[in-house]
Amino acid sequence: MTATVDADPDAQALLLPxxxxxxxxxxxxxxxxxxxxxxxxxxxxxxxxLTLDQARRAALLDRLDAxxxxxxxxxxxxxxxxxxxxxxxxxxADGYNAQLSRLIARYRAGRANSPA
Length: 116
Fold this sequence. Notes:
Layout: H1 11-32, H2 40-49, H3 52-71, H4 87-93, H5 98-113
């Protein structure tokens, strides 16, 4: 992430860096798992063949993929359509990049201090 922001960041300022971190995490998980088949029946068999650790990573990969899609404008189930930056995306991105984590903390503080 190269952007530096002195003022409290808004959701738009965080959207790209959060999406990049989530995308990188998803790519690492994808490489650590056996290739996922495309068809539903094959995917069912694939899921059943995974170890517990692989199954946890596959579930996290599904979550990260859904969040990446949501941030890219394809609303994901479980997240408000009009929320461009769900808290879940912030939680998943926090701690993977020091500068981004500082921006997320300032964003959360600004959101907590804003009138409801």
